[in-house]
């Protein structure tokens, strides 16, 4: 196996490659996550192309991975179906809702800015 960029193609080349490897037991073992660390599960889902584009754009805008935005959107969606007071919502959504309600108030009820 003379070319470094190719994989062994037979048992002889594989044995030759394995003979070049050197193992080092001096590297420190990585720490295990604590007992309170949340467990993340991998899921494969199909989403519409336009939602994927929005997801990527939002992740890029915030400078975070797509998965962070996706998990947040899932939490918000699931929270909206909950009766619990600890529902996670985006501040911008609350602000838009309040502005919508305030814009419909009678002029006498509106607070002067």
Based on helices, strands and strand pairing, what is the structural class? mainly alpha
Could you list the spans in which at least 5 consecutive residues all have pLDDT below 50? none
Report the sheet with the most strands, covering strand number, pairing sense and barrel closure.
none
Portion in helices: 40-55%
Topology, please?
Layout: H1 11-20, H2 49-62, H3 66-79, H4 91-103
Helix pairs in contact: 2-3
Give structural attributes:
113 residues, mainly alpha, 4 helices, elongated
Kindly describe this structure.
With 113 residues, the chain is an all-alpha fold. The chain contains four helices and no strands. Helix 2 (49-62) packs across helix 3 (66-79). The longest helix is centred in the middle third of the chain and has 14 residues, at 49-62. The radius of gyration is 27 Å and the shape is elongated. It starts with 10 loop residues before the first helix and ends in a 10-residue tail after the last helix.
């Amino acid at each position: 196996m003379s070319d470094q960029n190719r994989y062994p193609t037979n048992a002889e080349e594989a044995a030759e490659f394995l003979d070049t490897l050197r193992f080092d037991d001096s590297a420190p073992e990585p720490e295990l996550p604590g007992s309170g660390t949340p467990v993340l599960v991998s899921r494969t889902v199909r989403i519409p192309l336009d939602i994927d584009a929005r997801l990527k754009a939002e992740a890029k805008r915030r400078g975070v991975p797509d998965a962070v935005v996706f998990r947040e959107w899932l939490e918000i969606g699931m929270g909206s179906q909950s009766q619990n007071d600890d529902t996670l919502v985006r501040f911008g959504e609350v602000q838009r809702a309040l502005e919508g309600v305030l814009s419909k108030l009678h002029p006498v009820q509106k607070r002067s800015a």
